[in-house]
Fold each of these.
Amino acid sequence: MIGKVILDTGPLVAVLDKRDRYHDWAVNQWVNIAKPVLTCEAVISEACFLLKNVYGGEDAVMGLVSNGYIEVLFRFSDEVTAVRELMQKYQSVPMSFADACLVRMSESIAGSTVLTLDKDFRIYRKN
């Protein structure tokens, strides 16, 4: 079982949207992950937006948070300088706000792994 997983938007959407091409993969990952998975509010916002046309999608995201399967630990106001620096460093990619928050979380949480479908995470580096 994988420990301390930081969840990105893609796998979250894929778990909840049966039509997503990564749905089966995401479900298989989900069952092997220790709960709670960790994320930031930017990922929750992106997931709700992407699932707005999936019946019950937004509510399912909020349900995962309220049931404790997803824990939102990141506090942007405490990390604004680090997030800003990351976004400036990777401006040529460009790095999204959510990605910067996740990279910062991975720097702050020892032994963590980011579960993502985003190829940009092959470019990003901790610290």
Amino acid sequence: MINEIEKIIVNEIRPYLRQHYGDIELLTVKDGVVEIKLVGQCSGCPSAKYTVENVIEKILKEKIPEVKKVVMINEMSEELLDMARKILNNHMKVPMKVPK
């Protein structure tokens, strides 16, 4: 089933996402549940949930009846985490002004 899913991603889903400067990574497939990660402009997009439900899941379920659900896994990149750490560390070093 993984090979079928990858073929559909390459031929149908990825071209759609690339129109929006995004992409998709297939993470796992287990018991009919497909775990994916959206990348590029699709990562963190407010419409990502709807893209997964109305585009990705719909296409995969139509083409492969064994697919029960598509789950989007949100991961933060180490680069983003490092940036957040730096901002927080700098913020903590600034003395707070206490009103008189």
Amino acid sequence: MIKLANLIIAVMFAAAVSAQPQSQNNSSTSNLQQKAEQELAQGHRASARSYYVMAYEDYAKKGDIKSSVDCGVKATALYYKDNAYKEAFELLRNVDQSIRSQRISGSAKAALHYQTSKERMNMYLRMRKNASTQEQLNIMASHAQASNDEAVKNDLLYNKAIYYYTYGQNEKGNAVFKEMAAKLTAQKEYDKVEEVYKTLIANGRRSNSANMVAQSYGSYVAWKDSVYALKAADAQAALKKQIADNEAAISEKDSSLTARMAIIVGLCILAGALAVALVGCIFVLLRYILLSRNQKKTIKTISDNNAQKANFISNISAQMAPALSKLDARQPEVKAMEDFLAHIQTMSELESDTEKTVELTDIHVQPFCEGLMEQIRNKVKSGVTLNVNAPKMTASFNEEYLSHILSHLLSNAAEYTPESGTIWLEYKKRGAHSHQFLVANTGVNIPEEEREEVFKPFRTIQDLTKGDGLGLPICKQMAILMNGNLDIDPQFAKGTRFVLDLHN
């Protein structure tokens, strides 16, 4: 909690405006800011601070107040990171004076003053001065209202949440953060809400604030579950609207056709022309019906072909098994081929049973998880720690599929966890019918570009004695058959963590 102030620096506004290439002076000022950023990247805080101050002054002379304020705020952060609070407060007073001297709109000034007030709040938060921090929050609220800028108002909510979490007021922090998430969710900006949650979780981890990480992650999971329902409702509403529009269009066309028929009856002179038009409409309608039937036949053919393909592959595996049984199973290549055929057989059966209803049995979660972890104890390297975190409770799962998935993930963890590393198996109940298993291990991360590929079968051609790459695709298919999903947690930075979500 004490280090929480460090995350404030990471969430400052990026308000710098690109320099105008037409002016040599602007180019020089831009170079000052670039030098500051280069020095900061190399860890030279003192020299980076000096360059930011010079860039702040030059931008102010050129009338680029937004870039000036941005550089002044960054220099301020570098001052108080070195405990130079006197210089930091003095610089902010100068920045506020520069803002007041500008001939810009009141709302623009309020948005800029908001940045300086936020920086003062960061310092008071760092110094643990609760009353002063609260005073700056009130000033920030006034500036945010005057700025008439939704981004600034959202940032205010975010900083209020940080303040409440810092001083242990978790309920108020949750309420403010939920207000911000609800605001963006109401605007259907789901991606922005998810990004805000992930930013807050990441900042909590960087600041070593276990409280903030736990609160944020719990709220994130609850929001994500709820947004699935919102998206489904939106899609359903859109589909209903489309159906209603189509019905209205059909009704309108029917009315038009009835009117035309009345005209045909009343105006015999135009009977021939209208008859031709009517025949044309009928032809179009019949053609549409025929195309619809052809599409249905095509879809059915594709489905039948997939089923036949799965049966064909299964038959091939079954026919090759007797031949392989006559070979020496002690040879690595023969054993690898037998495993490969077994995996293909399993994959084919899973793909052909996409509409299968899996059977559920009651499982005692804690001894079940401990038993699975015990199976890999003799497979791990020296000094590896095995941790199981599961409550004493009973839940309904398909024991065959669940055991297969977790055993495979734990075996992979045992193989790739280095000496003195750690392997975790956790269970969390996410709702009345929602469950989550987490399998994590320390070591090297799976690269981001490969996280989706590892769940795809037959993606590479390799020596079967080194693995056939079907383990994770089979686990993924089993998770789907259990009305769930298997994925890799992108937020886990200590190694690799697989997340198995199940719903029943």
